[in-house]
Amino acid sequence: MRTSIILFLKKEFEMAGLSWQAKKLCTVRLSRKIIPGLRSYSLGSLAQSLGVQIKNRHRAGGDAEATAIIFSKLLNRDKDGYISRSLKRNSGETILPPNLPKEEFDRLPAKPGVYYFLNARSHVIYVGKANNIKKRIAGHFTGDAREWNRSKIRNEIHHITYELTGNELIALIMESQEIRRLWPKYNMAQKFRVEEWGIYSYEDRTGYVRFSVNQVKRGSHPLIRFNTKGDAWNFLWEKVRAYDLCPKLSGLQLSKGLCFQYQIGDCKGACMGVESVKKYNKRAVKAIQSFREPGESVAIIGKGRSARENSVVLVEQGNFLGYGFVSKDISLQHFDDARNYVRTGAETSTVQNLINSYLMNPRDCEILVY
To answer: How far, in Å, CA of 78 to CA of 38, rounded?
Structure first.
């Protein structure tokens, strides 16, 4: 039964003061099992194959009547009990796209990785990442995922493939690079709109160099970018402490008058003009220069795809180099040792933001500095 018809009936019952929850069945999925071998399982093709005449084609009433007749014929032909099994709570049949074999869904792992939705010609139409691939994909097709239920993507999904990554960081990096490599039609939002947070500098009316953390807009030029606002704030706090900067002039405190750090002796009072513009700006400029200095060469070690291996993300002088997997028995004492186990990848602004964020907040990863 079509979603629009179910919503119409549900609304009518609500107006009558009745609560109605219907179990859903997909005539396309059922028809594939009960009547295998048809060229197409669209409503028109099914009706033609079963000798059902559709009156008022593409109108709610006509299509609903044809669907009901087709379903009654499927009931009569269902000698193997596919329909009754589909109605069971844990069958999964009611949420899956009509052209996706349930066997493929059942084989999906509950592990971190990147997954691909393929159409009838095995072309990738969507790339996603997840900490739990099976749970994430099931979530796309539940009743709460309205954008997926409305989208044509449901009917275009014929197969799902995946690649395990071991952890979230590599899944994020791989997803970003795969979207750029494949340009899937249903990843449009991710192609052109990626949330980034940047640290900006400017001079106020009295000449003091100030900082702010804001979302990156097209055409803006932040000093450094991060994947989350929290990671940008943490990075800026480190610079404030390292260069004796004022938290208030850095946008980290909004108090009136002197900042809290001045009151406890950790700020020289630029927020109230106690410290001269020249002395304060000298340290602020050094802080800005440190944003642009070559970073450290590090290896970010995380969980691997199995209990016997670790993942490795290499950063050379602050720039993303690549990722790979290495046996837990192998010691990565030198940077060149780790280089042998990674495949180089393209550094994009999205990937660099991820790296900056993970270096600030490793999230279950170990950082090896070379």
So the answer is: 16
Kindly provide the residue ranges of all beta strands, DSSP E only, lying in the chain, ordered along the sequence: 113-118, 124-130, 159-164, 197-203, 209-215, 224-226, 298-303, 309-316, 319-327, 342-344, 366-369
Q: What is the pLDDT of residue 49?
A: 79
DSSP track, 168-204: HHHHHHHHHHHHHHH--TT-HHHHH----EEEEEEE-
* pLDDT, tens digit, 9 for 90 and up, residues 45-83: 787 778 888 777 766 677 778 788 887 878 788 777 777
Cα separation, 218 vs 256, in Å, equals 32
Q: Where are the domains of the chain?
A: 3-86, 102-192, 197-292, 298-369
Which of 60, 59, 40, 58 is CA-nearest to residue 50? 40
Q: What secondary structure does DSSP assign to 7-50, as a single string?
A: HHHHHHHHHTT---------HHHHHHHHSTT-S--SHHHHHHHH
Fold topology of 102-192? GIY-YIG endonuclease (3.40.1440)
What does the block give as tokens for 18? 């009745």
Can you read off the two tokens belonging to residue 365?
């990863």
Token duo for residue 320? 């993303």
Of 90, 194, 171, 186, nearest in space to 138 by CA: 90
Q: Which amino acid is at 335?
A: F
**Phi (first) and psi of residue 164, to 5 degrees:** -75, 145
- Lowest average pLDDT, out of 257-261, 284-288, 294-298, 337-341, goes to 257-261
> To 5 degrees, how large is the angle CA 177–CA 182–CA 187?
85
> pLDDT tens digits for 324-365?
999 999 989 899 989 999 988 877 778 888 888 888 888 788
Q: How far apart are CA 76 and CA 78, in angstroms?
A: 6
